[in-house]
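Message: A physicist's question: would you kindly supply an amino acid chain plus fold tokens?
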Amino acid sequence: MSKVKIFVDTSADISADAAKKYDIDVINFLCVFGDKSYVAGEELSNSEFYEKLLSSDKLPTTSQTPPAVMHDKLSEAAKEYDSVVYLTISSKASGQYNNARMNAEMVMEENPEADIRIIDSMSFSVYISETAIYLRKLLNSGVELDEAIEKAKTILDAYEVYILVDSLKFLEKGGRITKTAAIVGGLLDIKPVLSVKNGLIEPVEKLRGKKKVFNKLADLIKENPEFDDEKKEFLVIDSNAEYGDKMIEILKDEF
């Protein structure tokens, strides 16, 4: 069986436990708050990021992995492993894919024996981490790399995501909506619903009011033409345990 190194990046949100269990390494972005930059995941944890986000007047920015760091990571992995697979954040949202592809080509020119596959996930977060985990499981079961990659990529189309935004504050800070729209939206208690479409995170609906918002989200799921009631499976990720528990309760009742 060939030795395969699997990489994801910060955007995959893979947990440390899952990364260790499935032997998946993370290529980290830089996160910049004001005039100070941090290596995401190493110098700044997720919880620390959100603490800074709440206390900062301006939104942080992210920066791609420095090309020299990218080159070194791919080069070292190519020397130690038969093949290297890197599932990147959507190329429509970041230059990380092109950064990785350029450095992979350089490494393979320097080392003709190297086999590096840079895969544009056209997605984000759990889509990427679950694809990487499935890829490792397939490889561990003896599936050849080319076939395993094609099978693992089916995860990218297997789920539909609905992101319920509780506050318009950060959308306004990031310039996604105007200050006026944020004020009016707050007064009307509007909750945007976002989804991943064509490699970007796009708004798909606006819901009003907290009382029925989770029921309305369940209705959106039922109305989706891609929803298969015979093969239903839900994954709830929350930044507020109370809201997450409420959503799970409604999903159980509805489905």
